[in-house]
Specification:
- The structure is a single chain.
- By secondary structure, this protein is an all-alpha fold.
- The protein has one domain.
- It is 67% helix and 2% strand.
- It has ten helices and two strands; from the N terminus they run αααααααααββα.
- Strands 1-2 form a two-stranded antiparallel sheet.
- Helix 3 runs antiparallel to helix 5 and helix 5 runs antiparallel to helix 7.
- The radius of gyration is 34 Å and the shape is elongated.
- The model has no long low-confidence stretch (mean pLDDT 83).
């Protein structure tokens, strides 16, 4: 362990953390509008969680690249981190990592500019995060020195299973379900606050009253305003 440099440990640990944070960010993005998340936090808070996780994932990717460049084991240059196919160490699998970095940058850069894109275009760009996850998984499995260890394999299997599950939920569920739920809730609220009109039967006529002083009988009638 004493022969392992600090930079190599930094590269390995930050790579694992970037992978975990990328998984968490994708899960948070899918469940932004779920009923469970709506009960847990406000819309602004849910969006902030998603953004923070994505930013932390990118920061970990930056530390991962810094560790690789500073370490002397694989002889990685700065251009190798941004130019696909330029790395000499396991070129193909390292290219997966470079492409993943670019996809993450594109998705993150356009996430806050939704109003400048058509809805279909923005969704297509945002769905590139799934390609980024696949690229990160392949890159980690084929280049990571810890990939064969049980704990690392468990992380890959668990992350892949979770992302596959949320992807199935997103693509197979009814996209209009949240809108339908909001409409149903609004209709129920309108029915609950709608005034109730009750029609009462007409009142029976009052019996005649006798005036004992004069001995005459007179009818008692209600004014028209009180009849209504």
């Amino acid at each position: 362990m004493s022969n392992v440099s600090f930079w190599w440990i930094l590269a390995r640990s930050s790579g694992v953390m970037a992978y975990v944070l990328l998984t968490a960010s994708m899960v948070a993005g899918v469940f932004l509008h779920s009923r469970l998340m709506q009960r847990m936090a406000s819309p602004i808070a849910r969006m902030e969680w998603h953004k923070v996780l994505a930013i932390l994932a990118l920061l970990m990717v930056g530390l991962h690249g810094l560790g690789l460049v500073m370490d002397t084991f694989v002889h990685t240059g700065w251009l190798d981190l941004i130019v696909p196919g330029s790395a000499t160490y396991r070129t193909l699998w390292t290219t997966f990592g470079v492409v993943t970095l670019w996809l993450m940058l594109i998705v993150s850069a356009t996430a806050g500019a939704r109003k400048h894109f058509k809805a279909r275009t923005w969704k297509a760009i945002h769905f590139a995060s799934y390609a980024a996850f696949i690229g990160a998984t392949v890159h980690g499995l084929m280049t990571g020195t810890d990939s064969g260890l049980p704990w690392m394999l468990a992380i890959y299997i668990a992350s892949t299973g979770v992302v596959a599950g949320v992807a199935a939920r997103r693509f197979l569920s009814d996209p209009n379900a949240p809108l339908k739920r909001r409409r149903a809730a609004r209709a129920a609220s309108d029915r609950a606050h709608r005034p109730v009109h009750v029609e009462l039967p007409p009142l029976p006529p009052l019996p005649p009253l006798r005036d004992d002083a004069s001995g005459h009988t007179r009818e008692f009638t209600m004014p028209p305003s009180e009849r209504e």
